[in-house]
Design a protein that fits this description.
By secondary structure, this protein is mainly alpha-helical. It has 18 helices and no strands.
C-alpha cells in the first residue's frame, strides 16, 4: 500500500498550502471589481478571450477528468479515450455555433442567466420555462456539486491523511470564502490558474511516466501482457463506446459552461477561444488516459490502491514516482481541478435562486437595488454550498458515474432547448418546456432502470427524446394557435 508521507516535507506542504490559499487572494482582488449583480454573475460581460477559453476548459473538466477518466483508463484500458472524444468535438463547435449567437442575443436582451435568455426569447411572461429550469437545475446541480465536493475530499483526505469529514469541511470553506468575495470574476481568474496547474499535471506527469516506462510501445506491451483487452480501443463494447462518445452531447446544456460564452467582451473573440480551448482539451484528455494506463502497468492489482479505488491512481503514482515537491504540486493540481467546477456550479445555483426565482418570479413586481441583489447572491452561495456538503457526506458515490448522471440530466434538459431556441424559429415556449421536462425525466428513468442492462449512457437516449419532444409539441402548439385565429 503506497504511503503519502511526502506532504510532511516542509517545502512540499508549503507548495500545497499555497495552492489552497491562492484562490482566496484572487478572490480579494476580484472583490474590488465586483460592484453589482452583473459583475458577480457574468463578470460584467467584460472577460478576455483567453480567460474565457481556459475557464471553460477548466470548469468543464474537473474531477471527472483527473480522477474519473484516469480511473476508467486504469480499469478499461485505452477504450477510455472515447470518454473524452465526444466532449472535445462538441466544445469545438459549441464555442462558435452556440457561444457566439448566445452572447449576441444575451447582450441585446441584457440577460444574466440562461433562463433569462429562454424567457425573453419566447416572451414567457408566465415564467413557465424559468420555473421548470429552476427545478431541474436544483435537482441535477445538487448532485453535481456534491460529487465534486466528494472527489475533492477524497483527494485531500488521502493526501493529508485526515478524516473525510474534515476534508469536506476544508474544501467547502475554501470555495465559499473566495466566491463570496469575488463571484464570477474570482471564479474565472481562479479557473485560469487551475487550468495551468491541471495542464502541468496532465502533461508533465504522463510524459515523465512514459519516459520511465521506455515509451508508448513498452507501455502497451506491458498492458497487453496483463490483459489484451486493455490495448483494444473497442473492447469496452459498442454500447459503452457510444455512451462515452455521447458524453459530448451534454456540453451545450451545462449552465456553468454556457455562462462563459455569455461573459466574453466580444462574441467574435470566441473563435480564438475555440482554438485555444480545443487544443488544451485534447492535451489534458490524453494526459488523463495515459495516467490511468501507466497506473495499471505499474500497479496491476486494484486492491493495492487506497480502498481498492481506481480513481486514486493519480495520487498513488504521484506519491511513488515523484519527489515531495512535485507531489505537493500535483496533489494541489487535483484539488484545483475539482474546485474549478464546484465554484462555477455554485455560482449557477446562486444565479438560479436569486435572479431566476427570487428576483424574477417571487419579487417580480418589487424593484431590488444592486446592493441587495449582490448580498443575496453571496448568502445563497453559502447556503447552497453547505447543502451540497451535507449531500456529499450522506450520498457518497463513484465520482465518474455520479458526475455523468448530473451531466446527462442537465445536458438533455437544456442542450436541445438551447440549440433549437437559437436555430429553429418554429420552436415555442410549450415545446421548450416539454423538451426540458422530457430530457430530465428520461435521464432519471433510464439511469434507474435501463442503463446497466443495456450499457447505454442515459444522455444518448434522453437527448434525442428531448429534441423530439420540442419539435412535436412546438408543431402542435403552432397548429393550435393558427387554428384558433379567426
Amino acid at each position: 500500500m503506497p504511503t503519502y508521507e511526502e506532504l510532511s516535507d516542509p517545502l512540499a506542504l508549503t507548495i500545497f498550502l499555497i495552492t489552497l490559499s491562492l484562490p482566496v487572494l484572487i478572490g480579494l482582488w476580484a472583490m474590488l471589481r465586483t460592484r453589482d449583480q452583473s459583475d458577480f454573475l457574468i463578470g460584467g460581460r467584460a472577460m478576455d478571450r483567453v480567460v474565457v477559453a481556459l475557464s471553460a476548459v477548466s470548469s468543464g473538466r474537473s474531477s471527472w477528468l483527473v480522477l474519473g477518466v484516469s480511473g476508467m483508463a486504469y480499469t478499461r484500458g485505452v477504450g477510455a479515450v472515447w470518454a473524452v472524444v465526444g466532449y472535445i468535438l462538441a466544445e469545438l463547435f459549441q464555442f462558435i455555433y452556440i457561444g457566439r449567437p448566445l452572447r449576441q442575443a444575451t447582450g441585446e436582451y441584457d440577460n444574466l442567466t440562461l433562463l433569462d435568455y429562454f424567457e425573453d426569447r419566447f416572451s414567457d411572461r408566465r415564467h413557465l420555462i424559468r420555473i421548470t429550469g429552476v427545478v431541474i437545475i436544483g435537482i441535477f446541480l445538487t448532485a453535481y456539486v456534491a460529487a465534486q465536493f466528494n472527489a475533492g475530499a477524497k483527494a485531500l483526505s488521502t493526501a493529508l491523511d485526515i478524516p473525510l469529514l474534515a476534508a469536506l469541511g476544508i474544501s467547502g470553506l475554501l470555495i465559499m470564502v473566495y466566491m463570496v468575495l469575488g463571484g464570477y470574476i474570482a471564479v474565472a481568474y481562479n479557473d485560469v490558474v487551475r487550468a495551468l496547474i491541471m495542464i502541468f499535471g496532465l502533461v508533465l506527469f504522463p510524459a515523465w511516466g512514459l519516459l520511465q516506462m521506455g515509451g508508448v510501445d513498452a507501455l502497451l506491451g506491458t498492458l497487453s501482457a496483463l490483459d489484451p483487452a486493455l490495448v483494444d480501443p473497442v473492447s469496452i463494447g459498442f454500447g459503452v463506446l457510444i455512451g462515452f462518445v455521447g458524453i459530448g452531447l451534454g456540453s451545450p446544456g451545462q449552465p456553468h459552461i454556457v455562462v462563459r460564452y455569455m461573459s466574453v467582451d466580444d462574441p467574435e473573440r470566441l473563435r480564438f477561444a475555440a482554438v485555444l480551448g480545443t487544443f488544451w482539451n485534447v492535451v489534458m484528455g490524453w494526459g488523463a488516459v495515459f495516467i490511468g494506463l501507466l497506473g495499471r502497468a505499474l500497479v496491476p492489482v486494484a486492491s493495492a490502491l487506497p480502498e481498492g479505488d481506481p480513481e486514486m491512481v493519480f495520487l498513488v503514482l504521484a506519491s511513488d514516482y515523484f519527489g515531495a515537491v512535485l507531489y505537493g504540486l500535483l496533489v494541489g493540481g487535483i484539488f484545483a481541478a475539482i474546485l474549478s467546477t464546484v465554484d462555477s456550479q455554485l455560482l449557477v445555483v446562486a444565479s438560479t435562486f436569486v435572479r431566476d426565482l427570487y428576483e424574477k418570479v417571487l419579487r417580480a413586481h418589487v424593484r431590488l437595488d444592486e446592493a441587495q441583489k449582490l448580498w443575496l447572491s453571496r448568502v445563497v452561495v453559502v447556503v447552497a454550498g453547505v447543502a451540497a456538503l451535507v449531500f456529499a457526506w450522506l450520498a457518497q458515490d463513484l465520482v465518474f458515474w455520479l458526475v455523468l448522471f448530473a451531466w446527462g440530466g442537465l445536458g438533455a434538459a437544456f442542450g436541445p432547448a438551447l440549440i433549437l431556441a437559437i436555430y429553429w424559429k418554429g420552436s415555442t415556449r410549450a415545446g421548450i418546456v416539454a423538451g426540458m421536462v422530457t430530457g430530465a425525466v428520461v435521464t432519471i428513468v433510464w439511469k434507474q432502470w435501463f442503463s446497466d442492462p443495456t450499457g447505454i449512457y442515459e444522455l444518448v437516449v434522453s437527448f434525442p427524446a428531448a429534441v423530439l419532444a420540442i419539435v412535436v409539441v412546438s408543431l402542435l402548439a403552432r397548429a393550435k394557435a393558427e387554428g384558433a385565429r379567426p
